[in-house]
Amino acid sequence: MKILVLNGSLRGNTGNSAVLANHAVTLLGQQATMLTLSDQLPGIREVYDLLASCDGILVVSGVYWNNWSSPLQRFIEVVSAFENTPAFFGKPVACAVSMDSVGGIEVAARLHAVFSGLGCWSPPCATVVVSRTGQEAIAASAGMDDDPNEDVWRMDDLSIVVHNLVTAAAMPRDNWKAWPHSALHIPDGPWPANGALDLESPKFL
Question: Which domains are assigned to the chain?
């Protein structure tokens, strides 16, 4: 069993999203492989092979003006060429999002939709959103009888997300069907971290 943790933190190995990603790796132990998207990534084919070899994917990002990070956006743009291939098809995906105060659940919901389009599926309770305001509320009511913030998402809830992802990753993937789609061009060579990106999608303007 192999779970790929996509660390989409804008600050790489520092910051809130990196804490979530590192905690997930600790929970998963030897089952985890982490890819930090702000780093220099290996070649396109190597990234494809890494995705194809995993059994499930945990996507981690912060919230930046109601969207995920720019490294994660670029990753999604490049791996669009892997839609419904063994890189994604039939694999479960979960999301862990950090945010200041707003926008996290919307970002997570859109990430689930994006990865569903790539060929993944979402198991139950496969999202956690940890916020600064939520953690302050948890701290303010800690120890109270009938704690009103007991159900606010916190770091500990990531263990449930990871458990459900691993459970889903053990399920067979042979019975899914893919819809018809126009395959994009998968280029060889180094990872295109910046500059123009042409995957030979249809041009109509």
Answer: 3-169 (3.40.50.360)
